[in-house]
Amino acid sequence: MLTTLIYRSRVSPETGQGNVHKLVQHALDKNKANSITGILLFDGTEFFQVLEGEEAIVNALFNRIATDQRHSSVVLLMQDYSAYRRFQDTGMRLFDVSSHTEESIIEDILNLSHFKGSYLQDDRIMRLTRKFIGGIGLHITSPEFNPSSWYLESRENFEISSWPAPVPEQPCQFALQPIIDALTGKVSSYEALIRSPSGGSPFEMFQSIPADRLYLFDIETKFYAFKLAKQLLKHNEKLSVNLLPGVLYSIPGAVNILIQQISDSGLRPEQIIVEVTETEAIINQDVFHQALKELRVAGIGLAIDDFGAGFSGLALLTKFQPDKIKIDRALIEQIHLSGVKQAIVRSIAQCCDELGITLVAEGVELMEEWYWLESTGIHLFQGFLFSRPSLNDTGIIRWPLMR
Ligand SMILES: Cc1cc2nc3c(=O)[nH]c(=O)nc-3n(C[C@H](O)[C@H](O)[C@H](O)COP(=O)(O)O)c2cc1C
């Protein structure tokens, strides 16, 4: 299958202009042998390359290019499939963007192609090319972008593996995982994650619950999370709990049950954040939204969980605006390498900023992911990079420090 791949990257300080020409000469010979065609734009700081060819060959080449030391911050902008090549006879042509006008470069690029008509002018590849030449669009983070100048440090042994034992005769257990403000060194809240009676996974836990008891089980077990939080959290610390939306519209008086549980455990409603995720279509919208209002009136915080996954997205946000939105981990994974994820998360961040909603990135596992998110203006994080969920405990946190 014929594929077109586009990426951007930043030239390494030791790669001089002469080396760029040498690189292109070598690439030209190799590309001819591999039936790869395309263009390479260079503005003195960043590269923008279009590669066309057989999918397996282009992917193998991109994997080599991505680890080439002559540049860094390689971000994939698009990969698409098409019936024809745009640059049929061009093994690899270098364009020096800094010393020519935008229009003359575009004209040269269009002249390289057999498809000079409006079709090529209007397509996505040309639009991205124009954006690069015009110096706008999907920028890589600032030249100071350097996650390796940071390291992680914990006040206790992070690798410690002995946690408190499961509480006997409880229908479930809870593990706590902190949501942290990485640069100020503060814990924003702890999320209570359900575990089986022996401390096993949520899957193991829910497997043993019949479908018709699920909502009742979900709400009844919240009490154990509140009890644990009362034991472990300080007076001003907050606890996030997950709630299936079905609980709010299927169980009569669900909000009052929660308020009673919070009070019985000795916590205050202001310490609790209820995270809802729309894992299934919400059948009774009116009752659901009425319950959300009642939670707010009781002083309980609200968050949309897994934002950007399944049903949990823009439609839910138009109906209610929570205090917090947690971006789904699928959007966070390898975000430093994906132009598509970067564009989506940047627009979510802008939307939340305009609406005064706090954004949390969950599932952060790599220093590069954290650094990209932090540079984009997201400050709250949850993930293995900083702290693992700890059974019946608040766990140990690793904080990022500058070298
Ligand atoms: C910005 C940039 C663009 C590159 N473009 C190509 C290319 O189009 N084709 C290619 O074979 N190598 C290209 N390379 C070089 C590859 O990363 C890699 O060094 C090369 O494919 C390995 O060649 P070799 O097997 O002859 O050592 C590029 C490198 C950089 C930094």
From TrEMBL:
InterPro entries: Acylphosphatase-like_dom_sf, BLUF_domain, Cyclic-di-GMP_PDE-like, EAL_dom, EAL_sf. Residues 2-93 form the BLUF domain. One of its GO terms (molecular function) is FAD binding. Residues 155-403 form the EAL domain. It comes from the Bacteria. It holds the Pfam family EAL. This is Diguanylate phosphodiesterase. It comes from Pantoea coffeiphila.
